[in-house]
Amino acid sequence: MLLLDTSAASEIMRRRPDALRRLRNEDPSRVWLCAPVAAEIHFGLSRLPDGSSRRGLLESEFRNLRTALRWIDWNESASRAFGRWKAFLQQRGTPIEDMDMAIASIALSLPARLATCNVRHFTRIDDLEVDDWSRQA
Q1: Which CATH number is 79's domain given?
Q2: Choosing a second label site near 86 at 20 to 30 A (CA), which of 33, 96, 120, 125?
Q3: DSSP structure string for 9-41
Q4: Domain region containing 84
């Protein structure tokens, strides 16, 4: 299984050839989106001017992505992973932002690989399999 983080979903929404190629190589029934990614996408879209063509295009692309992929909500397993890993990283002096921690926790709860362009943050979580979308496929 594969969970898209915000950076990977954004690359798909921008129709970047490499991201689209990577997505096509996955079984669509095994690719997931989650609420923290949607929240970050909606935040980014809300920062664009109402009625702008760019906002309209990206909103349309997100609707397409949301319709095509499976959805997972925050659950108890993700909550436990969040607490455990957030405490561990904080004690080690290498914390990551809460939204990234939430996305990683959901990937751990599936379990799924995490597709991201922000590898540096997510590789701090030893149990997480990170799929580096910052490199060309």
Answers
A1: 3.40.50.1010
A2: 33
A3: HHHHHTT-HHHHHHHHTS-GGGEEEEHHHHHHH
A4: 2-132
pLDDT at residue 52 in the model: 96
The 10s digit of each residue's pLDDT in 13-34 is 999 999 999 999 999 999 999 9
Please state the separation of Cα 71 from the chain's center in Å: 12
Whose CA is closest to 33, among 2, 67, 71? 71
Q: What is the DSSP letter of 134?
A: S
Closest CA to 24 of 72, 69, 89: 69
Looking at the structure of the chain, the number of domains it has is 1
Q: Which residues of 67-86 are buried (b: 16+ CB within 10 A; e: fewer)?
A: eebeebeeeeebeebbeebb
